[in-house]
Amino acid sequence: MLVPTGALITLVQKGLQYLEMEANLCNCDAGPDEEFSFLQPLDLITKDVHELRKMVNERREKLQKDRNKESEKEHEGGQVRVKERERNEKEKECEKDGEKAETLKEREQQHDNQTSREMDTDQEDKVTVKHAENEAFGGPEPMDISTTSTSQPYEIPMSDVTVLEGHTSEVCACAWSPTGSLLASGSGDSTARIWTIAEGRCKSASLNGPLNVLVLKHVNGKTNEKSNDVTTLDWNGEGTLLATGSYDGQARIWTTNGELRSTLSKHKGPIFSLKWNKKGDYLLTGSCDQTAIVWDVKAEEWKQQFEFHS
Fold first, then answer.
1. I want to staple 267 with a disulfide (CB 3.0 to 4.6 A). Which of 21, 30, 274, 287 is the partner?
2. 204 closest CA partner among 169, 165, 241, 167
């Protein structure tokens, strides 16, 4: 019987393939979906099946760790994209609100101008009728009457102006206390300030000396300054409490001594308006998250939320 040419090489190759198959399939931890791990010929010749299984397991563990890392990176990237999309949506909503407010303001201005023109026309007609009556009865000629409603500009001298310095960014809102000589201001530097304004004629800051001012900080270790811009503020009717709204979606209640009394958190977007009721026990806040909330200030809890603003 003749042995075919290359039979020995074929048998050796099949033996190595079988050994490689055994190292991959005889692992009790391997599932049917595990990837086949190819081994080097030198390892197949010099190592037994147990060592080969160990090599296959180590490769699979390393491959699984790499896959887990890639999955974590993709998950983190997805969260970043979601946050970025939410932030862009909030900015677009705020821009839409600003455009709507500007459109409404323009319409009101047009209506006021139309009303003013109608009043001027009516006044001119009355003056013309009066002139005709005087001429008909031989009376004296009337004096010229100015029908313009625009007041003449008046320049206030700097000696009558007091400049309040201290904010490091734009001032977004100001409000006088209904009682006393306190002025509250809110700024993009993440602070509100309560200024005590001296009575009497205003003088320059150098003559008045340092002003009495309380700084109400709206920052903490978890958020940055930009997210806490103070956008709106309002005093209660008694002038004992100051409510502030900020870009982080929180409303804060302060005493006239600068003490933070409570923090009201529920909005998911910046607060751009707030208002006390006359009694001073409820506070209404409006936000870019398209909701308005009524708060019980004493209980520090929200009573009702109005949604679906557009």
1. 287
2. 165
Is residue 289 in some structural domain? yes
In Å, what is the CA distance from 275 to each residue of 1, 77, 152, 224? 107, 40, 34, 26
**Angle ∠(241,163,244) on CA atoms, nearest 5:** 25
Rounded to whole angstroms, the Cα distance separating 250 from 219 reads 11
CB atoms within 10 A of CB 43: 15
Which residue segment(s) compose the domain that 217 sits in? 163-306
List the structure tokens of 156: 């206030």
The pLDDT tens digits along the chain (310 residues) read 676 777 677 766 777 676 666 667 655 555 555 666 666 767 666 677 777 778 878 887 888 888 888 888 888 777 788 888 888 888 888 888 888 888 888 888 888 888 877 776 666 665 555 555 555 555 555 555 555 556 678 888 888 888 899 999 999 999 999 988 899 999 999 999 999 988 766 655 444 555 789 999 998 655 555 568 999 999 999 999 999 999 999 999 999 999 999 999 999 999 999 999 999 999 999 999 999 999 999 999 999 999 876 6
Q: For residues 207 and 163, is the Cβ–Cβ distance under 8 A?
A: no
Residues 167 and 302 in one domain: yes
Does 24 fall in a domain? yes
The H or E element containing residue 196 is strand 191-196
Q: Which of 1, 64, 79 lies closest to 30, judged by CA?
A: 64
- DSSP assignment string, 156-183: PPGGG-------SS-EEEEEE-SSSSEE
Its pTM stands at 0.49
Q: How many CA atoms lie within 13 A of 8 on its CB side?
A: 1
174 and 296 assigned to the same domain: yes
Does the residue 69 lie in any domain? yes
Residue pair 166/213 in contact (Cβ under 8 Å)? The answer is yes
